[in-house]
Amino acid sequence: MSAREYRTAVSAQGSLLVVQQAPNVAFGDQVLIRDHLNNLRNGQVIRSSEDEALIQVYEGTGDLDLENTWVRFLDQPLEINLSPEILGRIFNGIGKPKDNRPPILSNVRRNVNGSAINPAARTYPREFIQTGISSIDGLNSLVRGQKLPIFSASGLPHNRLAAQIVRQAKLVDEESSFSVVFAAMGVSYADARFFQEEFADSGVLGNVVMYINLADDPPVERLALPRVALTAAEYLAFELDRHVLVVLTDMTNYAEALREVATAKGDVPSRKGYPGYLYSDLAEIYERSGRIKDRHGSVTLVPVVTMPSDDITHPIPDLTGYITEGQIVLSRELHNQGVYPPVFISPSLSRLMKDGIGKDDTREDHPRVANQLYAMYAKALETRNLAAIIGAEELSERDRRYLKFAEAFDSQFIGQGEDEDRSIIETLNLAWELLSMFPKDMLTRVSETDLAKYHRSDK
């Protein structure tokens, strides 16, 4: 590794440092900054020209004495050491240990700036992943290699839901190694402790690698963290043949850090002040998930996006929706009613669900049951709106049946305990209990065979 060192820093603002007379510096190169007290800071070149280089300093530029600051260009991108020993470990946003244990020593080093999987090498996402959560497994099923974000909002229990998915996610009927890469960006200390204790207490921590950037950690580190986490996931999936679930929380904090850095370096703002390249930047992250031909492993991605002001049309959830394959939307109304997890079924969607359910994956009636539940719940919501206008006592017997179904659906199917891990068979049986509130002739989206086998006519 060659390295060049300069003492030509001319300005520092926030996390940005400008160094002049540093020719032949490449975008993305790593930098070591040594201050007047001989303390080292890490940085990365984010813009370079013949005259000067602009450096993001992960630890910030506070207290730097520019005249006595040495800047060393390492002529290499950000890389991390990888080995099977990363499982059970906790790291910061650039892959340095946060658990007071030694760093990973390995001959395997990977550039974190990986690229999206080549479309020609991709194979279609298939195979059902059981999360143990009925509203996801039954109606918005997650399949191996999919990108399925959770759209939430401030004050909603997305952290608890993400932790539950990490604890419970498994492949049905396959004795294969399933690992989790958990990446938290801009979270509070309390949230970080919550995740660590949840995983430790449930016994899954040994199969989880955690990357954590706290709210008071450098925003610049937030930009590296998802790339570091996905590099680890790719290693576990495509070199160790594991099935890997990646949970990224919270992508809104990532996008705000991107906006902060883009503004500081003078990029032209677009919608809501975010840089015009927000879409391509998010795509660069999300498209690293998937499956590759002739490889056993896979990377499945569940990003958490908190919608500012509960606005699903905000640029971050809006652009995320374009790139990913569906969304799980959390509802403030259900949360206020005490329903956990407060998954709002109507706008939620898994576009690849059809490829992971059915006879060989879950159960033969699953696709039809999901369609029937959606249809009955949509009708029940219409009836609920009508009841709010004219009063429930004015409804017909048929409409009151829909109202009763909606209440049972919210409390029994959507609602479940935080430690309740339902198998897909339990979820489908529960769905039939609810559908059995209706006579057979009202259930038009399931087959006669389904009705004969699963409908409880005594209801």
Output the keywords.
459 residues; alpha/beta; Elongation Factor Tu (Ef-tu), domain 3; Rossmann fold; 3 domains; 10-stranded mixed sheet; 7-stranded antiparallel sheet; 12 helices; 32% helix; elongated; ion transport; V-type ATP synthase beta chain; ATP synthesis
Coarse structural class: alpha/beta
The count of strands amounts to: 22
Number of domain modules: 3
Residue-averaged pLDDT: 91
User: Roughly what fraction of the amino acids lie in strands?
Assistant: 15-25%
- CATH architectural designation of the largest domain: 3-Layer(aba) Sandwich
Taken from the alpha-carbon principal axes, the silhouette is elongated
Walk me through the structure.
Produces ATP from ADP in the presence of a proton gradient across the membrane. The V-type beta chain is a regulatory subunit. It comes from Sedimenticola thiotaurini. Keywords: ATP synthesis, Hydrogen ion transport, Hydrolase, Ion transport, Transport. This protein is α/β, with parallel strands linked by helices and 459 residues long. It folds into 3 domains: 5-76, Elongation Factor Tu (Ef-tu), domain 3 (Beta Barrel), CATH 2.40.30; 80-352, 3-Layer(aba) Sandwich (Rossmann fold); 365-454, no CATH class. Helix content is 32%, strand content 23%. The chain has 12 helices and 22 strands. The chain has helices at 134-137, 158-168, 189-202, 219-238, 251-264, 278-286, 315-323, 332-336, 366-390, 397-414, 424-435, 448-454, and strands at 4-6, 9-13, 16-20, 29-34, 40-48, 52-57, 70-77, 79-81, 90-91, 109-111, 122-123, 126-130, 142-144, 150-152, 170-171, 178-187, 208-214, 243-249, 290-292, 298-306, 326-329, 349-350. Strands 9, 11, 14, 16, 17, 18, 19, 20, 21 and 22 form a 10-stranded mixed sheet that branches. A 7-stranded antiparallel sheet has the order 1-7-4-5-6-3-2, with no helix packed on it. The N and C termini lie far apart (74 Å). The mean pLDDT is 91.
